[in-house]
Structures are given as structure tokens and as C-alpha cells.
Design goal:
Heterotrimer of A, B and C subunits. The chain is mainly α. It has 3 helices and 2 strands. Strands 1-2 form a two-stranded antiparallel ribbon. 1% of the residues are buried.
Length: 95
């Protein structure tokens, strides 16, 4: 798969990134380099390889799942510009 300047323009638009027309060829080359690297990664045989959390064997730290910091509704809502009936009040966006 190859990315041309028109596709790079569409990707930039979708990402809401302003890219000048003269920079589009460089962006397309960069996208193509990334896709080439992904193709290289897809060639690696990972059959039987266990997922890792770190490069060194270790277990994730675990904690008991208990509520430790509850009952702070009033403090949280004190930061809200508008709160009603114990909830954040926001402008209506759907008619």
C-alpha cells in the first residue's frame, strides 16, 4: 500500500492537522515509511510468544478493589461552573 499526497491531505484533515501543500509530499513519504515498518513487523513470527508487561519478568502490582475515597460529591461539584440536583449541568446539544 502506498500513500500519495492526496491521501496524506485526507489523513491530515481527519486528524484536524493543518498541513501546507508544499509539506504534503514529505508527509506522504513519512506515512509510507511508517507503513513499511508495520509490514516488517508483520513478518515476525510471534507464534507461542506470551504477552509481556515489561522486558523483565515481573507481576503487576495488585490491590484490593475497595472504595477508599468516596463521599466527595460536594467537593467535586464545587469546581463545576453549573451543578444541579447533585450532577454536572451542561448545555443541551440535542433538540
Amino acid at each position: 500500500m502506498s500513500i500519495d499526497t492526496e491521501t496524506a491531505r485526507k489523513v491530515a484533515h481527519l486528524a484536524r492537522i493543518r498541513v501546507e501543500d508544499d509539506a504534503l509530499p514529505a508527509l506522504a513519504r513519512e506515512f509510507n515509511d511508517i507503513l513499511g515498518f508495520i509490514e516488517q513487523l508483520q513478518e515476525v513470527d510471534v507464534e507461542g510468544v506470551e504477552p509481556m508487561v515489561s522486558v523483565t519478568p515481573m507481576r503487576l502490582k495488585r490491590r484490593e478493589d475497595v472504595v477508599t475515597d468516596g463521599d466527595q460529591q460536594a467537593r467535586v461539584l464545587a469546581n463545576a461552573p453549573d451543578a444541579r440536583e447533585g450532577f454536572f449541568a451542561v448545555p443541551k446539544v440535542v433538540e
